[in-house]
Amino acid sequence: MNITSIKYWLLAGIICCGFAACNDDDDDPTYSHSQAAEVEAAGTYVGTFTRIRANSSTAVEESAEGTLVIADSVSHVVNLTFTCDELGIATAKIPVNISFANAGCQFSNFSTNNPTGAAITGHIASDKELETSFQLKIRKGFNTTTYDITFNGKKSE
Question: Class assignment of domain 37-155?
Answer without folding.
Answer: mainly beta
